[in-house]
Design brief:
16% strand; 7-stranded mixed β-sheet; alpha/beta; 46% helix
Length: 482
């Protein structure tokens, strides 16, 4: 079967699932709080009851991924998001009071916003955090009263198949359905007339998803990534900054959308920063290649891609610092594991400074003054995350106000993402829209304005109905003025 036939077959199957979910959604009518909570509880039970199987499937897909990394980044964070939505849902579901216009606010009129479920939401997930990227948006989707169709990444096939099996065990297909497959299935999925699509992944694929969704006027939320910068201030605790930056960079082998990509370090503090990076890695990962705690690249293709960044930088005279023992830098391609490397002052035209790294490489750029740092960041596409390390509140305020990014963490890495009560999302090439908590509830709800007239007929009272005369003229003069 050729690619076109595969996509057609996938489209037929997906459309049948969508039709079943939409019919069930219409039959159900208003989605009760108890129903939403029950679905959230079943998600929590799915994760807790099957955590060992989930860790095993994810590790098999990566080749080497510590179960503790999966328990922390995937399962614990997912359970936390589900519980946060469950705790706050009753409050979020209440109609929101707004202010009717003057004078109707004094004459009995009422204005409210009702948040109603949209219907069936499509969730397209990446491979790097394959469980959390399902359940983090799903918590908001279910909290808002919707049903969901989920398309996991084909790069984590065992995890995807396990999710398909587990969701079928805990949910009816008319509530939540998981569909697996490659690019043809993904293309068919993004072309469905869903009520909303959230896609997490590469910008290049996000463009295709948006194009397909636009044909059906399907709204999209895109969480894409980019090159997230770090600014290390002259006055910061360099030991603490290096520890937190390198710990954050090493998490998941650098394969996080909010992973630090390039780091500005004052020229005068460069060597102290490098020394501390070496110490931190030696403490956390005494070895790399035989260490189950250090996460491998997802596959051989990504291994070769990241390795090429390092080799290319070295060939162009960049100072390359492997944070490992000699001989521990690279595994064989089939094990696809790379020790964390620092690339010091790479030329801007090199691939490592052009592409999103998404692996165990941290670019280090030295600087003399903050103006040049801000100019450099602002000349590039807007990143998903920005990090600042320092004690100078005035400088911190300047960095935040004079740059634009999806989110910011100060004196830490990625913790803004862990906060369920803040929106998470990108801006520009790093994405559009956001989700998490109340903001996610609103993203996946239709905000419906409901105005109820008061006990006075304002149109007649103000003389705004034809035939027009002196009365409406006076009213207009009273309102149209400085």
């Amino acid at each position: 079967m050729n690619a076109s036939n595969k996509e057609s077959a996938a489209a037929i199957e997906l459309q049948a699932i969508l039709d079943a979910q939409r019919s069930a959604f219409r039959r159900e009518g208003p989605v009760a709080l108890a129903t939403r909570v029950d679905r959230l509880d079943r998600c929590i039970a799915l994760l807790v009851d099957n955590k060992e199987a989930i860790c095993e499937a994810v590790s098999d897909d990566f080749g080497c991924r510590s179960k503790y990394v999966t328990l922390m980044t995937d399962i614990m964070n997912s359970v936390g998001s589900l519980k946060f939505v469950k705790k706050n849902l009753k409050k979020w579901m209440k109609p929101e009071k707004r202010s009717p216009f003057i004078p109707m606010n004094f004459l009995g009129a009422r204005a409210q916003v009702h948040y109603q479920p949209k219907g069936v939401i499509g969730i397209m997930t990446p491979w790097n955090v394959p469980i959390n990227m399902i359940f983090s948006p799903l918590a908001d989707v279910l909290g808002a009263g919707n049903r969901a169709m989920i398309k996991p990444s084909e790069f984590t096939p065992q995890t995807g198949e396990l999710m398909k099996e587990l969701f079928a065990r805990y949910f009816e297909e008319s509530e939540i359905a998981v569909v697996t497959g490659g690019p043809q299935v993904g293309a068919a999925f993004s072309a469905l007339q869903l009520d909303h699509i959230i896609f997490t992944g590469a910008t290049s694929i996000g463009l295709l998803v948006m194009q397909a969704a636009a044909k059906n006027l399907v709204p999209v939320t895109l969480e894409l990534g980019g090159k997230s910068p770090v600014i290390v201030s002259e006055d910061c605790d360099i030991q603490l900054a290096a520890e937190r930056i390198i710990s954050g960079k090493a998490m998941n082998g650098g394969q996080l959308c909010v992973s630090p990509d390039y780091c500005f370090v004052p020229q005068s503090r460069l060597e102290a920063f490098i020394r501390r990076c070496k110490e931190v890695i030696a403490e956390q990962f005494p070895t790399v290649q035989d260490n189950p705690d250090f996460v491998a690249c997802i596959n051989e293709r990504h291994f070769q891609r990241v390795k090429t960044y390092i080799e290319d930088a070295s060939e162009h005279g960049t100072r390359v610092i492997p944070l490992c023992n000699q001989g521990d830098e690279f595994s064989a391609p089939e094990q696809h594991k790379i020790a964390l490397h620092l690339l010091v002052d790479p030329a801007d035209e090199l691939a490592c400074m052009q592409d999103e790294i998404f692996g165990a490489v941290l670019n280090i750029k030295t600087y003399e003054n903050l103006d040049s740092v801000l100019d450099f960041i602002n000349a590039r596409e807007r990143p998903l995350a920005l990090y600042y390390f320092g004690r100078d509140k005035q400088e911190q305020s300047r960095v935040i106000s004079e740059t634009i990014s999806g989110g910011v963490s100060v004196n830490t890495i990625a913790m803004h993402v862990a906060c369920d009560d803040m929106p998470f999302g990108g801006v520009g090439h790093s994405g559009m829209g956001n989700y998490r908590g109340r903001d996610g509830f609103r993203t996946f709800s239709h905000a419906r304005s409901v105005y109820q007239e008061g006990f006075v007929d304002l149109a007649k009272l103000a003389g705004t109905l034809p035939p027009y005369g002196e009365k409406v003229a006076k009213m207009l003069d009273s309102q149209i003025k400085k």
